[in-house]
């Protein structure tokens, strides 16, 4: 794990809230200059602490009114086939390989519940699936506590 100090932690927290903030604005909030923030961000990227910048997307604004979590248990000898099918289906927004009875937990974006059949049908010959519709988000994605130096 990379060592970061209190200023690095503060910069990461500000970037996590809004990665489009200028370095000057972040610098004012953490008590250093904009160029110093830029240098620290460059170092954090070079050290692999920051691995990219993204954008938050409102899925509802794009017509996706539902999200679902799907636990997927491949049948014997079908692991790689299932992994490939998941990767090829663009409605899967993320997929983790996990321990336990299921090998994968994936997150889907859907315009309506009827799409579940279209998305999951190709998997049914080679895997067992268990689907849960997401009703609401209790916690949005966030940083874990940043470990002190």
From TrEMBL:
| Residue ranges occupied by any HTH asnC-type domain in the UniProt entry | 4-65
SUPFAM superfamilies associated with the record? Dimeric alpha+beta barrel, Winged helix' DNA-binding domain
CDD domains tied to this protein: HTH_ARSR
Identify the keywords attached in UniProt to this record, alphabetized. DNA-binding, Transcription, Transcription regulation
Supply the Gene3D superfamilies for this chain: 3.30.70.920, Winged helix-like DNA-binding domain superfamily/Winged helix DNA-binding domain
**A Pfam family it matches:** AsnC_trans_reg
Instruction: Provide the GO MF annotations for this entry.
Output: sequence-specific DNA binding
Q: Which InterPro entries match?
A: ArsR-like_HTH, AsnC-type_HTH_dom, Dimeric_a/b-barrel, Tscrpt_reg_AsnC-like, Tscrpt_reg_AsnC/Lrp_C, Tscrpt_reg_HTH_AsnC-type_CS, WH-like_DNA-bd_sf, WH_DNA-bd_sf
GO CC annotations, alphabetized: cytosol
The record ties this protein, via PROSITE patterns, to: HTH_ASNC_1, HTH_ASNC_2
Q: Output this protein's name.
A: Lrp/AsnC family transcriptional regulator, leucine-responsive regulatory protein
- Asked whether the UniProt record includes Transcription among its keywords, one would answer yes
Q: What is the species listed in this Swiss-Prot or TrEMBL entry?
A: Marisediminitalea aggregata
Biological process GO annotation list?
Answer: regulation of DNA-templated transcription; response to amino acid
